[in-house]
Write a structure and sequence with these properties.
Number of helices: 3
Largest sheet: 4 strands, antiparallel
Strand content: 35-45%
Distance between the termini: 81 Å
Oligomer: single chain
């Protein structure tokens, strides 16, 4: 009798899972249909006789190519970076973005080089000191800004529940809108691009994470299972897996191919941010409300190590060589931790610097020489790691700055505030 009950429960559980997966697929189809309607509406509103812009041609071509490739091969085998390659080629036609391609030279930007994958290699980042452009990016607070690996696109998100994609010419001052991704039912806290730059990942306050395609801007996956807000979500070693952290005190590892959670890690405290410490996607570092930074090997259940700070951790970032970990905490101090020794080697603070919220994000410059974070008074602080002193304090925002991000080339920085606006910062010439 017990065996029969167990088989019945297993069968009912399988049926419930199947029904839930079908419901998620229908929801994704509805969201994609809405996105298609919006794109068609924008197309109809274009004046008669007006030709599409080069960017629109690139997006349309990339979308059609992606659809053709998906008919010929499984999703995980698609070469999906065509959109970013096309956008990069439009912005910099003299660069092929591949190994052996000719590289454009500029006397004013000799620090910018190209690596074999087409991504900018920053040797010396510019120190942002002047406002290049300021605009209303969203309808509410902006909680996350993320650049793609090669810098061809960047994404912004916040409390208005949408992800916006932007591009910017190397010497332009104005970002160009590239699309709006819908599907979240609450504010978005975290953004990430996969290594191939084909997917965008967002963690949201509706207890879920979502994945969109970059080329077709369609919703691919809805990852539900947390019992509270998802504060951070990152691709784990590639486009096949995702790790998410939540205020429900757990980290979850997701397999996108099977569309299922394959591991739940009980962290013991609300998670505010996650970084991936190795290219294989096995080493995960999480920052928590209980003032601890925890180091995980996702192949095991237990935390490998912990570092205790003096305030609850709001964000984490890795240096370009992945040897240093930057943390921001509510005691208004940024800590630099040497991962080879698991010890704090630098503490950075300043008069007037005050962390604005539990979601305030800090970042390294792409050359690893500077760190930056926004302040409650609307300022952006930049410290030098070599001198341990403040190198610049710039202020243009009218409300607390929640997030900052450097372009991978080091040419400029983008910051976002609580009240709609983003600012592009460049070096004073």
């Amino acid at each position: 009798a017990v065996e029969e009950q167990q088989k019945t429960l297993q069968r009912e559980n399988s049926e419930l899972v199947d029904r839930w997966m079908r419901l998620k697929e229908r929801t994704a189809d509805l969201v994609n249909a809405g996105n298609d309607e919006q794109r068609e509406h924008r197309r109809r509103r274009r004046p008669s006789g007006a030709s599409p812009t080069p960017i629109e041609d690139s997006l349309r071509s990339a979308t059609s190519e992606a659809g053709a490739e998906q008919l010929q091969a499984p999703q995980e085998s698609v070469k999906p970076s065509s959109l970013l390659e096309r956008v990069s080629h439009f912005f910099n036609p003299s660069s092929t973005g591949g190994a052996g391609g000719a590289q454009a030279s500029s006397p004013n930007h000799d620090h910018r080089q190209e690596n074999v994958t087409g991504a900018p290699l920053c040797v010396s980042a510019c120190l942002p000191t002047k406002v290049s452009y300021k605009w209303d990016a969203h309808e509410g607070e902006i909680s996350s800004i993320k650049f793609s690996c090669n810098g061809g696109l960047f994404a912004t998100a916040g409390s208005d529940r949408v992800v916006k994609l932007w591009s910017m010419r190397p010497f332009s001052t104005t970002p160009t809108p590239q699309g709006v991704l819908h599907g979240c039912n609450a504010g978005i806290m975290s953004l990430d691009f996969d290594a191939l730059e084909s997917l965008v990942l967002a963690g949201a306050n509706d207890y879920s994470s979502r994945v969109w395609g970059v080329a077709d801007q369609r919703l691919r996956h809805s990852l539900t299972g947390h019992s509270n807000k998802v504060t951070s979500a990152k691709f784990l070693g590639g486009a096949g897996k995702v790790v998410s952290g939540s205020t429900d005190r757990t980290l979850k590892v997701w397999d996108l191919r099977n569309k299922a959670c394959i591991r739940t890690i009980f962290a013991g405290s609300a998670c505010n941010d996650i970084v991936i410490a190795d290219s294989l996607g096995t080493a995960v570092v999480s920052g928590h409300f209980d003032k601890k930074i925890r180091f995980w090997d996702i192949r095991s259940e237990a935390s490998a190590n912990e570092v205790m700070l003096q305030g609850r951790v709001t964000s984490l970032d890795l240096s370009p060589d992945k040897t240093l970990l930057l943390s921001c905490s509510r005691d208004d101090i940024l800590k630099v931790i040497d991962l080879r020794m698991n010890s704090v080697v630098n503490s950075l603070g300043a008069d007037g610097f005050k962390v604005a919220a539990d979601c305030s994000r800090c970042c390294f410059s792409p050359d690893g020489q500077y760190v930056s974070c926004g302040s409650q008074d609307g300022s952006v602080f930049v410290w030098s790691l070599a001198s341990r002193k403040v190198e610049a304090v710039v202020k243009e925002h009218g409300s607390s700055v929640l997030t900052v991000a450097w372009h991978p080339s080091g040419d400029f920085m983008v910051s976002g505030e609580k009240n709609k606006k983003c600012v592009v910062w460049r070096e004073q010439c």
